[in-house]
Design brief:
This protein is an alpha/beta fold. The chain is built from eleven helices and seven strands. It has a seven-stranded mixed sheet. The N and C termini lie far apart (about 40 Å). One of its GO terms (molecular function) is methyltransferase activity.
């Protein structure tokens, strides 16, 4: 088994004590994970984060817009024998022809290649495509958990956030959990804000408007060194590193962004 970096299994800030479940810890330490991804555990705290959201074998878990599959490498093994991991990606054909469609197609192709290249890990996982203008992630009341990591700012800027949260609510069973991790602004920001950060109360308001109840928040992914005032927004920081080479040490010392970690519940159970 791969030993996770020491920082990856320690709380990341005040009030961050989370009881890590053995099943989640085993999945995080799986030696089939990409070593480059493992190095980022120190910033993303996957063991604490997934345990806080209550992710466990036997569940149907939908991860919305998984990108290159960073969390897929943990969730797929965790749910391989009992449960179902579903990666929900944007349907490229639902996006207007041009750069946007090309980006979504590259993203889909990359994830498909990753899954096809390691059947032992991803062979039981499913990929579903959704239309961001009218998102459906699966049959109503079918999922135990929906997860999204650092995506809300994109949905807000494209005017899709309301529909996305409604889609999450629809697919979850009564009592199901929505877990959200997002770059945290100092305060509320305009819908067209280009920094990549979102106000925590804004995210809570969006979820409540869709019908969710806030069931908990954690400082697992806090970073007090993040001043949130950079020339290229959150993308100035690692891992994107959109900054002058001369400032490399400065931004590496800050690390990845300060993030809210919110757990919502669909009422009714």
């Amino acid at each position: 088994m791969l030993t996770a970096p020491a920082m990856a299994i320690k709380p990341a800030g005040p009030n961050a004590q989370v009881a890590i479940t053995p099943a989640v810890q085993k999945a995080v330490q799986d030696n089939r994970r990409d070593p480059a991804n493992v190095k980022r555990d120190a910033y993303r705290h996957p063991a604490q984060t997934l345990s806080f959201f209550g992710v466990a074998p036997g569940q149907t878990v939908i991860e919305v817009t998984p990108g290159s599959g960073w969390y897929s490498e943990i969730l797929a093994p965790l749910l391989h024998d009992k449960g179902q991991y579903v990666a929900a990606v944007v349907d490229p054909m639902a996006v207007a022809e041009g750069r946007g469609r090309d980006y979504q197609q590259r993203s889909r192709d990359g994830l498909d290649k990753k899954f096809a290249g390691n059947a032992a890990v991803f062979g039981k996982s499913r990929v579903v495509a959704y239309d961001p203008k009218a998102p459906v992630f699966g049959p109503a009341n079918s999922a135990d958990v929906v997860l999204t990591f650092r995506n809300v700012h994109n949905w807000r800027s494209s005017g899709q956030a309301e529909g996305m949260f409604k889609g999450f609510f629809s697919v979850l069973k009564p009592g199901g959990v929505l877990g959200v991790v997002e770059h945290r602004a100092k305060a509320d920001v305009p819908a067209d804000d280009k920094t990549g950060y979102v106000g925590q109360q804004q995210v809570i308001a969006m979820a409540k408007a869709a019908g969710f109840e806030l069931a908990g928040s954690s400082e697992i992914n806090t970073n007090p060194r993040d001043t949130k005032d950079y020339p290229n927004g959150v993308w100035t920081l690692p891992p994107t590193n959109q900054h002058d080479a001369a400032d490399e040490a400065k931004y590496q010392a800050i690390g990845e962004s300060d993030r809210m970690t919110l757990r919502f519940v669909k009422p009714g159970k």
